[in-house]
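The instructor's notes for this session suggest beginning with a concrete chain rather than abstract definitions. Hand out the sequence below and ask the class to guess, before any prediction is shown, which regions might be ordered.
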Amino acid sequence: MQLHDDNAIEKRPSVITQFRRAFALIFNPGTPNEGIYSRRSADGIDMILCFEDEQDAQRYSIMLAAQDFPEADPVELDTHMLLEFSEEGGHTLGLVAKGKLVVPPEANVPMFDWSPGTSEEGTLPPEEMSMDELDQRRSMLESLL
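After discussion, reveal the predicted structure:
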């Protein structure tokens, strides 16, 4: 295994989607307080990081824990769904190929830009959403299972 920087993280959607599934780091999986790990890239945009290999994802999670992050579990997810989720949130998606070691940034964001209940996609109550919007949300949630 070799140490690489952000240049080792694949960011091209056309390449990422060639992998059907990847492991994302999820905080509090299956709870109302569930969240996904992201890191700020050099261009200032938050990048959701996913891994081709579960052991590489677990290793990264351990490194995060050593920096006092809460425990994050590697969860296998569909790359198309991850890409769509990233784009909807104004983020990029990065994939770490098997055997590449990417270390967490030394500087962490002291305060998160996100908090439960304030995301834009959750601002409309279900009764004000169109059937297409409801169906799309249901499909995204079902794909997580």
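Then share the key points. Residues 131-144 form the longest helix (14 residues). Residues 88 and 121 are 9 Å apart (CA to CA).
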